[in-house]
Design a protein that fits this description.
The protein is of the alpha+beta class. It is built from 8 helices and 16 strands.
């Protein structure tokens, strides 16, 4: 088996020693090349070349951003359509792409944790080696939004504003406290205001909102060690989950945040628009709003269509 280990040396918990241990362990089972990323987008370029060269396995050692880049590189040449009427997801055959392995090296590691992969890089390495030895893997569904693949979540509005603020402090460790402070600042001083969002789902009447969270699995994310559950029924085997709010008054925000941190039960509320297992979501914004995928700010958009793509990728786990 030919494999490439993609290492982000700038990720929170990656070290030169850990990289060497991981590389040595993998090299005992596969024919391995190790590449460290030098710039934003480098992991995507490496993974795209690996897919074109017929590599069997690409292992991402870094945070969620590194994993997202690798996934987008692996599937960069995949042919996916969304149906002639664009009212539902109808992915075509993606074709053979390398399998994905993940050894967490970031701060949140949402995708890895959702797969049951240990947040500890050493333990995660043992899990990966055991899975390779026993030929164990699983197919996972992914989300596709405006040409960007995402593994665990995407969003328009408040969460993307938070991601943008955190990104400006890149180089600092992305702790739960940093995200909390960014969330509070973005709540009281939204950088782009709160433009109205119109949510369109096949078979449903349009709904209005001011922020929208889209999930590809549960938890939606983590705050430190605490899971945030917005769509508890969402998984890599189902469609997308939607959690949108039509108002962001303090009582509304407090109620839903407390519930998301305290329990996995489904939420309800007068200002809540929530759906599970959706094949497609379209969101239109009255003015440009921030748009994020897997915790990385993509830019500003006035329209985004989100599609669920089942069985998009094989993960060694």
């Amino acid at each position: 088996m030919r494999a490439i280990l993609v290492v982000n040396p700038q990720a929170t918990s990656t070290t030169a020693g850990g990289r060497d241990v991981l590389a040595h362990a993998l090299a005992s089972q596969v024919k391995l090349d190790v590449v460290e990323t030098d710039y934003r987008g480098h992991a995507r370029a490496i993974a795209r070349s690996a897919a074109r060269d017929g590599i069997d396995l690409v292992v991402a050692h870094g945070g969620d951003g590194t994993v997202n880049e690798v996934v987008n590189g692996l599937l960069a040449d995949a042919a996916v359509t969304s149906g002639t009427s664009r009212t539902h997801g109808d992915p075509t055959e993606i074709g053979p792409v390398p399998a994905l392995g993940v050894v967490p090296g970031g701060s949140a590691n949402v995708f890895a944790r959702a797969l049951g992969i240990s947040a500890d890089p050493v333990e995660a390495t043992h899990q990966l080696l055991n899975a390779l030895e026993n030929d164990r893997s699983r197919r996972v569904g992914l989300g596709l939004a405006d040409g960007h693949w995402f593994t665990f979540n995407a969003g328009l509005g408040w969460d993307a504003d938070v991601v943008g603020r955190v990104a400006k402090r890149r180089g600092k460790q992305t702790t739960a406290g940093l995200y909390l402070r960014a969330a509070v600042r973005s709540y009281f001083r939204p950088p782009l205001g709160r433009p109205a969002l119109t949510i369109r789902i096949p078979g449903e009447e349009p709904a209005e909102a001011v922020t929208a969270f889209v999930s590809n699995t549960d938890p939606w994310s983590y705050l430190g060690e605490r899971a945030i559950h917005l769509n508890p029924g969402c998984s890599f085997e189902t469609g997308l989950g939607l959690f949108a709010l039509s108002g962001l008054t303090l009582p509304t925000v407090f109620k839903h945040v407390r519930h998301a941190l305290a329990t996995k039960s489904n939420q309800r509320g007068r200002r809540l628009v929530r759906h599970d297992d959706l094949p497609m979501i379209r969101i239109d914004a009255a003015e440009p709003v921030n748009f994020q995928v897997d915790g990385d700010l993509v830019g500003q958009r006035t329209r985004v269509e989100f599609f669920s793509v089942p069985d998009a990728l094989r993960v060694i786990t």
